[in-house]
Design a protein that fits this description.
globular; alpha/beta; single chain; 17 helices; about 375 residues; about 15% strand; five-stranded mixed sheet; 13 strands
Amino acid sequence: MAAGAAEAAVAAVEEVGSAGQFEELLRLKAKSLLVVHFWAPWAPQCAQMNEVMAELAKELPQVSFVKLEAEGVPEVSEKYEISSVPTFLFFKNSQKIDRLDGAHAPELTKKVQRHASSGSFLPSANEHLKEDLNLRLKKLTHAAPCMLFMKGTPQEPRCGFSKQMVEILHKHNIQFSSFDIFSDEEVRQGLKAYSSWPTYPQLYVSGELIGGLDIIKELEASEELDTICPKAPKLEERLKVLTNKASVMLFMKGNKQEAKCGFSKQILEILNSTGVEYETFDILEDEEVRQGLKAYSNWPTYPQLYVKGELVGGLDIVKQCEACGPVLPILATEAEDHCPWSPERKNELKENGELLPILRGEN
């Protein structure tokens, strides 16, 4: 009985093998929600998502589920800009209404349920939805002084035009934030109408559209780009701000919750034993800081510990300092500065040898 149910669920996920078959399916399923999985047999995450679709097919018989081998039907993949697998497209009335890139089972389930439960909207409801989307797009375009809407991320652009745009902005030391349009189909389609600009990438400054790659290249050639876009702070200024971000700053591999190297783990243990408040910066998350801080501090390795913006040293130095007493003298001073007692009370505790143990939480 269980085997029969499983076979029925698999059967509920149709397979398309040609562009003609796909177009015919769009026509036949126009009145229902159609979910298409662009997959590849060599990708294990695709097999997992096929299983998720089979389960959804059992729960939602009113929804049509289809799988299409992306490399086997390239004309369909190219038409819908499928650049990676798994990718899911959602269709209603033969029109694409949404998209999901990647193996995200919870998000797929959420999108299928949402679109399956939404019927035809009255014109007034459509207007309300459009108004909400425009408000969201306005917030997104104003999310940073300079916003880039692109395919992928600055670290991993997913098209040549987006890659070129990122290279130009980095070359001119322009500070910008980005939004991956592949992560949200509503934004991807809506921003085209909002900005009256049909392609990506799109660059915004103070919420105003500057243009796409061709416009940015023209601005670069005319030397206007530097006057329009906000500059990133110079590295030295940025490092000065970071080292003074907290009274005690530790630059390490990982963070307070999870050290990613043995040296960083050891220094965390020492700092935690002092009871002193401190902040950390994960150098693995920012290559510019990782390399720049070595020159800034004239210290070639990590971790690096700073107190009030001044370098104390690395693990060996901290260990030597710790050997001088029950707690790092520099950190003891820092903890003492922040404790709420009066100077008289501190002196009394010092004379009795009780201050350091209390600061360390031992009493």
